[in-house]
Amino acid sequence: MNTSELKIAVLGCGNIGSAIALGLVKSGKFSASNIYCTKRKKDSLTKYADEGFNTTTDNKEAVKNSSLIIIAVTPQQLNELAAEIKSEIDSENHKIFSIVSGASIKQIKKLFGDDVPVVRVMPNTAIAIQESMTCISGNEKESIDLAVNIFDNVGKTVVIAEELMVPATALCACGIAFFMRAIRAASQGGIEIGFHAEDALFMAAQTSKGASALLLRQGSHPEREVDKVTTPQGCTISGLNQMEHSGFSSSLIKGIVSSAEKAATLYSNKD
User: Fold this and answer.
1) pTM for this structure?
2) Is residue 95 part of a domain?
3) Is there a single domain that holds both residue 62 and residue 183?
4) Whole-number Å distance between alpha carbons of 269 and 109
5) Averaged pLDDT, 79-84
6) 120: nearest Cα among 85, 153, 84, 95
7) Where does the pLDDT of residue 225 fall: very low under 50, low under 70, confident under 90, or very high at 90 and above?
8) Quick check: 207 and 221 in contact, CB under 8 A?
9) What does the alpha-carbon distance between residue 94 and residue 116 come to, in Å, rounded to a whole number?
10) Could you report the per-residue pLDDT of 211-223, keeping only the tens digit for each?
11) How far apart are CA 106 and CA 93, in angstroms?
C-alpha cells in the first residue's frame, strides 16, 4: 500500500492523537489533507484545521472518508465510540489501529466484528518529533506490516506479543514522563550547585540525550558506560551511591511496575 495516499482518521485528537497526526505530517510521508482529526469540541479543532487537516466532531464522517482508523480515545470512551461508528466500519475497506490502553484485540473485535483487521499500537508523545518508541501487536501480517511501515516514519518500532502491550505502555508511553521527571530533577540539582534554571535544564536535557545516544548508536550496556565515568574515590561514584542509598533505581522500577499494573485495569470491559 502506498502510505502517502492513505486516508487516515485519528479519532480522539488529544495529546497522543494529535502527536500522531502531527508526527505523520512532519515526517514528510503523509499529507495533512489525507488525515481526519476528530474531537468532541469544535473550537479545539481550529489549530488542526489551520495546519491543513480535515477536522470534524462527527466520527462517522471521518470513518466514511478514511481507510485506516486510529482510535486514540481513552479506555473509558472506547465503548461509546464503538457504538457510534460500528455501522460505518467495513472489514473489506477498513483497518483499525488501537491506541487504547488495556483493550485487547479480542475485546476490540468484539465491539467491531471478528472480521475487522485490528492492530494494537502504543507510541509515545515523542512521535510529534519523529522520535517515538512504538510497540505494535497483531495477528494479521498485512496489518502489522502496514503499522510498521507507517510508524517507522515517526521513530522506532518493535513488534511484540500482545501480552506485552500493557507493560509496553508503562515502559514506553508512561516512560516519557518518567524520564522527563528525571531530567527535571537533574536540572534542579544543577540550579542548587550554581546554574541558572534555563542553563541547567538545557545542560541536563543534552546530557540525557547524549547518554541515550551512546546506548542506541553503540549498542552498549548502561553499566559499561557508567564504568567509563566512575573512578576510584571519584565524584561520579559518590553521587551514584548517594542516589542508590535514596532508592533511585528501585523507585524507577517500582514506578514502572505500578504503571503497568494500573494500565491493565484501565479498560473495564473484560471477558
Assistant:
1) 0.91
2) yes
3) no
4) 12
5) 96
6) 95
7) very high
8) no
9) 7
10) 999 999 999 999 9
11) 20
Taking the mean position of all CA atoms in its chain, how far away is CA 262? 17
35 and 119 in a single domain? The answer is: yes
Amino acid of residue 222: P
Question: pLDDT value at position 3?
Answer: 72
Please give the grid coordinates belonging to residue 93. 475497506
Residue 42: per-residue pLDDT: 86
Clarify whether residues 154 and 237 are in a common domain: no
Q: Average pLDDT, whole number, for the chain?
A: 94
pLDDT over threshold 90, residue 270? no
Q: Is 39 in contact with 12 (CB distance < 8 Å)?
A: yes
Structural domain boundaries enclosing 19: 3-160
pLDDT at 141 over 80: yes
Mean pLDDT along residues 172-177? 96
**Res 61 pLDDT > 70:** yes
**Distance (Å, whole) CA 246 – CA 168:** 27
Can you give the three-state secondary structure of the chain, one letter per residue? CCHHHCCEEEECCCHHHHHHHHHHHHCCCCCHHHEEEECCCHHHHHHHHHCCCEEECCHHHHHHCCCEEEECCCHHHHHHHHHHHHHHCCCCCCEEEECCCCCCHHHHHHHHCCCCCEEEEECCHHHHHCCEEEEEEECCHHHHHHHHHHHHHHEEEEECCHHHHHHHHHHHHCHHHHHHHHHHHHHHHHHHCCCCHHHHHHHHHHHHHHHHHHHHHHCCCHHHHHHHHCCCCCHHHHHHHHHHHCCHHHHHHHHHHHHHHHHCCCCCCCC
